[in-house]
């Protein structure tokens, strides 16, 4: 009995130990800060779009190998064994056998036929093969550019969502601070009301204000959770993974006017270069189609070994012989009903359509940069104004609170001052977010999104 109790105690302690370790691990996971650089690195490693872009880039080399194979010798070996239980009869004139006027039915061939051969073909000249090899190399370069563009899109999404979460968390900090302050004021008023120094309406107003702040806090908690889940999705990590974003990341935001002077060369941006590489591919596709006008020349060779007999072919029972052939094949296209001409003209139309897209993209990238530059300038102005407003609102709130404590201001003024301070703080936080989003857009327009990884 005592032995069972001892085992039960040991088991309980073991369960508590394991639970403690799990809780400690979870706590450590939750308190591990996630920097923007780490978030971007995880996204580029885990996000499906980035993974697929890297696989497409890898596949580009395989396409080069496939195109190169068409210019290499093609060697094939075949082997067959045929049994003819009934040989086909052929009619021959009787004169050949000394029986004029009769038709004789004679079976030709042997019942067993064995054949093994090796064939070789080598392209000597085929314009479509050479053009296909150039196209394969260009395709690999295209996938490299697409991977870079995809990485930039992933970085933009993660960075934008990262600061969305950061700002919502900062708003939650502001609300918690206001709840703490309002709770202290409410406790003071409640004490004054009990002592007959305050009216019940003052206590009710303070209670309502506190209730509104708590409701606002709950809404922010829900918003933070939704924003964090979206961030985890953009990072390509499980939604249940706990993350913590350090508040210092928001404090480190400092407006930078110098970056507005870095005018980009739109022809070096990923969006533009991807389209130019597509244009190269379409030109090569047109050249491959025009290759239908050119003749093609190839070398072929064949060697075989054959055995025939009326019994199962073996080395002794069959008649064995070999054969070989070498050929030079020339194909000259003469007329195909203008099919090649139509395909070439279609390819030319595709090129002109893409060139129109390239011109439009060039204008769009220039517009994006100018708008991002203007938006960043406006965001800096708004941010500085909101910073001043927060300082003024805090000063007004402090003075109003002192006046209320001395009986020189009604509770309404203090509540208004408190609401004004909360609004100013939230506006400043929103201005920080707007500035950071405008900064990200300007960095993107300048083609420097990967600098966020540094």
UniProtKB/TrEMBL annotation:
The keyword Lipoprotein does not apply. GO terms for cellular component: cell outer membrane; efflux pump complex. SUPFAM superfamilies: Outer membrane efflux proteins (OEP). Keywords: Cell outer membrane, Coiled coil, Membrane, Transmembrane, Transmembrane beta strand, Transport. Its main location: membrane. Transmembrane segments: none annotated. It comes from the Bacteria. Belongs to the outer membrane factor (OMF) (TC 1.B.17) family. GO terms for molecular function: efflux transmembrane transporter activity; porin activity. This is Transporter. Residues 203-230 form a coiled coil. It is found in: Cell outer membrane.
